Every structure is written in structure tokens, then in C-alpha cells.
Amino acid sequence: MEREFSGQSLLSRGDSGTEMGSQYISESGFYMTSFAATIFVASLVTIGVLLVTLVVSLAVMLQSCESRSKGIVGIEKASHSYCEILALHGELNGFKHDEVPPVCRSLAVRYIKEGGYARDLDFTMRMIESFFDTISPSNDRVVLMDIDDILAPDPRSNEPSSCIKGVTNLKQRRTLELYTKLRLRGWSLILLSRKPERQRNVTAQNLNSIGYSGWSFLMMRSDRETETSEYFSRQRKELKEQGNEIISVISSQMDALTGWSMGIHVFKLPNTWYES
């Protein structure tokens, strides 16, 4: 009985162990029908196409903007070249302000406002001073300076009312500084003017009032002379016949820088049509 009970007990324990050792495993997952999968894939493809389209559109827009900017720069360069050539011929032929095309007036104003005129004037003045550093004055050596750009308004004014008046005053101040340096170095200075002889006293008073003094001679045009380039040529020829050596002619106007007896070195100051 004891063995039977023991056997049953062992048997029952074995059954119990089997029940306790058994495991129930449950698995979880994501299930999708074929229709849903098709929609999902189609959505991914659509998004990809949209992204590619966006990238292509941006590239086309950037290329268009670049082409447009290059076109504008090309037009500006062409206009600038055209106006430079026109300015040269305008100065040679004495063009007036109302003969200048509007596009060139706009470029001239921008040239002034952006400091181009001031830089060119400064460079020219330094060139003139460098030249005179290499040569010495003497009794028969003369320098001719055009004064018509340095009379009114006062070149010592520091508060111009506009950009045009500002550059005019700037040239007047720098010309006065150059005149003073040359005079102090002992150069004989002859002043050129297109004004008629009857205005000599008024012109001399104006020059003295703005700081010019000590010049050797003031050339004034006679009432019968109308062609200024011929007038300047004749005056220079007479100076040479009197035994003078013309070292340099300094002016911003072409009529004073062409013709006979121009001297060793000619210097043209930058100019704008707005000063005509």
C-alpha cells in the first residue's frame, strides 16, 4: 500500500510538474492587406515625385534669376561703354548738358555718388604732383592752369547742397591746393580763361577772394575771338616766341588741351557734363 501510494504520489507529482512546466506563448504583429500595401507604396512614390519636381523647379528658378542678373549686368556694361565714348566725343565737341542722353546722366550721377569722380580726381592730382617732383622751376619755365572751373562757388565751402555741387567744390579745392603748392615751389603760373578781356578786373578780384594770388599772367580772350581752341593755341605760341618754355598745361576742358605748343606734359582733370 505504501509503495502504491508512493507510486501514485510520484505519478501525481509528475503530472503536476508537467502542468507547471508548460508555457503559453503569444505573438503580436502588424498585418496589412494587399490593397493597403498598394496605397502605401503609391503614396511613397507620389511624395518622391513631388520632391523631385520641387528640386527641379528651384533649379530652374535659380537659373532664370542668374540669367536675368547677367542680362542686366550686360546691359549696364554696354550702357557704360556707350556713355564713356559719348563723353569723350562730347568733351571734344563741347556738348552741353541738354545734349546728354538720360541713361548717361543717370550713370554720371551714380559715378559721382559712388565716389568714382573723387577717386579719379585724387589719382590725377597725385600724378601731377609726382611729375613736378621730378622737375625744377626756372625763370623761363611756365605752367598754364585753366581757371574757369575754379571761380564761384567758393571752393572752400564744405557743405554742398547737392552731389553735383559737391564734386565741383571738391575739384575747386584740390585745384587751389595744387596751385598753392606749385607757387610755393617757385613755379611761374599763367592762368587761362575763356572770359572776355572786359571782365579782367572782376575775374582778378574773384581769384584773389578765393585764395589765388601771385600768378605771373592772366590770359583773357579778346572780344573778337570766338574759337577758344584757336585762342589758347595762339596764346601758347606767343609765349614760346617770347622765350618761355611751357612745362605743362592743366585743365579739365579739351579746348585748352589741344592745338599747338602744348608743352612737356598735359594733364586733364576729370570732368562731368553737369559742369557745362
From TrEMBL:
Domain of life: Eukaryota
Ranges annotated as spanning the membrane: 35-62
UniProt keyword annotations, A-Z: Membrane, Transmembrane, Transmembrane helix
Keyword Transmembrane: yes
Pfam family, one: Acid_phosphat_B
Coiled coil regions in record: none
InterPro entries membership: Acid_phosphat_B-like, HAD_sf
Protein name: Acid phosphatase
Organism: Hibiscus sabdariffa
Phylogenetic classification of the source organism: Eukaryota, Viridiplantae, Streptophyta, Embryophyta, Tracheophyta
